[in-house]
Amino acid sequence: MTIPVGKKIYFASDNHLGAPTAEASRPREKKFVAWLDEVKHDAAAIFLLGDLFDFWFEYKTVVPKGFTRTLGKLAEISDSGIPIHYFVGNHDLWMNGYFEEELGIPVYHKPEEFTFNSTSFLIGHGDGLGPGDKGYKRMKKVFVSPFFKWLFKWGHPDIGMRIAQYLSVKNKLISGDDDAKFLGEENEWLAVYSRKKLEEKHRDFFVFGHRHLPLEIQLNEKSKYINLGDWIQYYTYGIFNGENFELKTFQKD
Hints:
Elements: E1 8-12, H1 22-39, E2 43-48, H2 68-79, E3 84-87, H3 98-103, E4 107-108, E5 112-116, E6 119-123, H4 134-143, H5 146-153, H6 157-170, H7 189-200, E7 205-208, E8 214-218, E9 224-228, E10 236-240, E11 245-249
Parallel strand pairs: 1-2, 2-3, 3-4, 6-7, 7-9
Antiparallel strand pairs: 1-10, 5-6, 8-9, 10-11
Helix pairs in contact: 1-2
């Protein structure tokens, strides 16, 4: 992808809309929509790296209630011709066609490679990557299994959504308190994962979410790991202008 002169690639992650309640998250949602309104004027593309929602499950004919402002703004931007790319996170694993069919937004379930102006990127949400976290990795295999999704769909949506949202809010990853503890450059497991991938192939930037902590770690002279932070505490996002990548904080109310 060639970035036109004056345009930029934007990145954001981990909004967790709906947590701890729909009402409590609405100011954050409005702030995110204001950000989308601002960046659409010079965006060549927008990458959303997962956990936009604190819980999302698509039944065959039912989608979760709420998030109208966000979905409407994404539809508007997509319809205007600006590409939006979405990577599922650990809270919205169960996407199954709605974004593609209704919003024209491609959805990715694993990290993907992109090249912008000859600069290479590996992009993903970040959950289940790198060393450790074996308990979550086993749990994820269950959650994404066709049998589990089939079983969950047989429950009434009101009951299923209520149970799932309750369990999701109880997870401390939502607040970011557990994630937002810097482990050191050598121990940050997504940085460890990125260094391992560098042994296979060079990428200029590794961009992930999930950690809820804004991070920039130089992996070697030519490669950098970026974590985007979140829209719960930090309101940080990434910008690539064709040459340089930087993290910024959205300040507007």
